Amino acid sequence: GESKQEIVFIGIGMDEGRIREQLDDCLLNDREMATFEKQLKRGARFNIGQEIEAYTGPNGWERGVVVALNYREDEWPEGQIAPYQIQLSNDGALI
Hints:
The chain is α+β, with helices and mostly antiparallel strands. The protein has helices at 16-24, 30-42; strands at 51-55, 61-71, 82-88. The protein is built from 2 helices and 3 strands; from the N terminus they run H-H-E-E-E. A hairpin with a 5-residue loop joins strand 1 and strand 2. It starts with 15 loop residues before the first helix and ends in a 7-residue tail after the last strand.
């Protein structure tokens, strides 16, 4: 059968229009979805929790752990997605 997901908000004085607007802002547009689908087909080389070495530029290679797949920052250009977010072992920085 079909399945669906629902979010229910219960409260007084909530702005339904604003809630809907904020939730709609979380959705991918067609271009972002196409990029995401390409990445899914390609598959991830590393998994969340996997220890890796990442090239960080002037510092060379640093050890870290994959903490997210298909990572995106809000201020990045539309459609830009990093395949991984990595937490560096030496200082805990996220890259």
